[in-house]
Specification:
Layout: H1 7-24, H2 34-41, H3 45-51, H4 55-75, H5 83-100, H6 102-111, H7 116-135, H8 145-165, H9 172-182
Helix pairs in contact: 1-2, 4-5, 4-7, 5-9, 7-8
């Protein structure tokens, strides 16, 4: 049974996350001070330090929450009959996740040019791909799974980053159509 969280802690952390993101829209992460985060979040410094040792731990906690949400969504992925269908399915889940959290990703990746969020996306997707390929018979080639997975996942993540940087350049639907054309039918 999952332990019930104290709502005050949940609210405090939510306020700190939102405060950090507001600041990151106009200020580089390196220039933000804990006192700035506390002021905009209406949280005392001592309360901040009850939950986080510094602003880096706050950012990592925010990223970890995003990763957990993405992993939960990926785990709901329906079984597919081909590797291409599987990839298109996880790409759709990934783009929906990014679209639902576009402000967060924009603040972290676009405004601050911080690679930690991109690394998190890449690792979450790679973990799901490796788990799926190990538990299915989608692989039909002698090329190592790691090489193929890194190749395709890295390409997709880079397309996602471009979508985050310029969300109005292409629609998510258009990108999915392009990726469908780019992914070969026999990935593995």
């Amino acid at each position: 049974m999952k332990k019930k969280q104290d709502l005050r802690i949940v609210k405090t952390k939510k306020n700190l996350y939102e405060g950090l993101l507001k600041l990151m829209k106009n200020t580089s992460f390196e220039d933000i001070k804990v006192s700035d985060i506390c002021n905009i979040s209406l949280v005392n410094r001592s309360t901040f330090y009850d939950h986080f040792s510094d602003k880096y731990e706050l950012l990592i906690s925010l990223i970890n929450n995003l990763e957990e949400e993405l992993s939960i969504n990926l785990s709901k992925n329906k079984e597919t009959t081909s590797a291409k269908d599987y990839y298109l399915s996880i790409i759709t889940i990934l783009f929906n996740h990014i679209s639902d959290n576009l402000d967060i990703y924009t603040s972290i990746i676009k405004t601050n040019n911080n690679g930690i969020a991109a690394d998190m996306l890449r690792e979450a997707i790679l973990k799901d791909v490796k788990k799926t390929l190990d538990s299915t018979n989608l692989k039909k080639t002698n090329i190592p799974t790691d090489i193929i997975s890194i190749f395709y996942v890295s390409a997709v993540i880079n397309v996602c980053i471009e979508y985050i940087k310029e969300p109005n350049k292409y629609t998510m639907k258009d990108i999915l159509i392009y990726l469908d054309k780019l992914l070969p039918n026999d990935i593995y």
